[in-house]
Amino acid sequence: MLETGKISALQMGMMTYPVVVSTAMLGGPSIMAQRAQNDLWLTPLWASLIGFFSVWIAVQLNKRFPGMSIIEHAREITGKAPAAVLGFLYLFFLLQVNGIIVREYADFIAYFLQETPLSLISSALIVVCSLAVKGGIEVLGRTAQVFFPVFIFPLLIMIGLVFPALDPGNLFPVLDNGLLPSVKGAVTPLGWFSEVFLISYLLPFLSNRSQGAKSALLVVAGAMLTMTIVNVVTLFLMGDVLGNILFPIMDTARYVNVAGFFENMESAVMAIWVIGAFVKVSVFYYATVLGTAQWLRLSSYQPLILPIGILIVLFSFWGIPSFPQMGEVTAITIPVLQSLFFCFIPAGLLVWAIVRGKRSKTEEAESG
Hints:
Elements: H1 9-36, H2 43-64, H3 70-78, H4 80-110, H5 118-135, H6 137-162, H7 180-184, H8 187-194, H9 212-238, H10 248-254, E1 257-258, E2 262-263, H11 266-296, H12 305-315, H13 328-356, H14 361-367
Antiparallel strand pairs: 1-2
């Protein structure tokens, strides 16, 4: 077996929550405001629907094929040749998405460390993440559990401190152009919520499998609530200019001023993003390494950690002149592909398995 470690459903949730939320907190309000205007508070609600659906699909596939990831599901459902092609496309896409996440991280850190080469920032992140991946699923779970409070509390504190500066009047008029703008604004976060499907690689290693679905559903609900709160706070604070600001959460941190002593919480935002990016990249990294080992039918994923880490760094620069210039690619193209690979293709596999009566021998034995 490639992985012998175990994590709890709670640890899985703490690993998955930053995967969904970390990118959304940084530039999400601006991206959603460009299409939804002052109705961006509704966009996480529409986008979360695909998250709940992705969780249901992952759980149902895991019930029919216990102990398997999506790479192995495809082999059981479609046969070797189609599964080999589909597996390659999945792994290539995971590399591409992880490269974009690493590049976004590097561009954000370069916002503070302007003289530091992006390649050095990206490589440093991958080195740290590779150590966590090398430790296996248990190390990833415990690391996420330790960092989770540090990821959450600074954000809550910052929101509380800027509360006096908020202007609820920026919310109006509500739904002035109907629901369509808020639905259009949900295109990008659809991709973020669909990433919860990565639990497909984590469910087989739960020590309490019966709690897996509940934990994943709570992640989606918590992510929806977090995005809504961040959207509302930044809208109340910045109003109509929100869509023109690259990192609204950074500008929100600059509004903090308590008695002229406690102010400028940019370092807190940086800490939140660094921790969130570390967990997110590590989970994507682990899924890519484990999935590649399963695709190649290796007995261990350890030899793949270094070469895949190098590929992730290369993908963070391949075809990406700079993150702000990615424009429609990160706002529409990548989210659509994420929805395809993390939701609709797995849904097709599940339907095919149900129609053909496909299930693993373990599941048959348990149901019998």
